[in-house]
User: What shape does this take?
Amino acid sequence: MLTVMIISDGYKHFKEGISEYEKRTQKFVNIRKIKPISHTNPEYIKVKETLLVKEVLSKMQGTVYLLDERGDRISTNVFAELLEDVKNRSEDMIFIIGGSYGVDLELFAEVQHKKIRISDFVMPHSLALLVLLEQIYRAKEIEKGSGYHHG
Assistant: This one.
């Protein structure tokens, strides 16, 4: 099973695309939404949201991937191979999309994880969710040999 954990209070700008890929991936992706912390201090928000993510992760098992612009670059084909490899080992994968101020990396260092990036660009978190869901769908279609991917 794949879990995508996102700190977000809505997807209004990309709702249609996200809804489409939620439908296409619903059999193998679980999306866990965490409500953002409301506060005026960005550092406070980042710490509290990181603690929320860690609390949820403490009840889960699987390999954790933090989406971060400083993470490792990964191509679509390598991503597809990664998903297939994890599936073959019967492991779960957990993707984390942090809140507006990101994840407190010092606090998160206690969680064994890998950092990957989906782009060199910084983007809204709802767009990152859309891109991730599409890439998960694409990876599954590559595995099936469906012709969806032309790369």
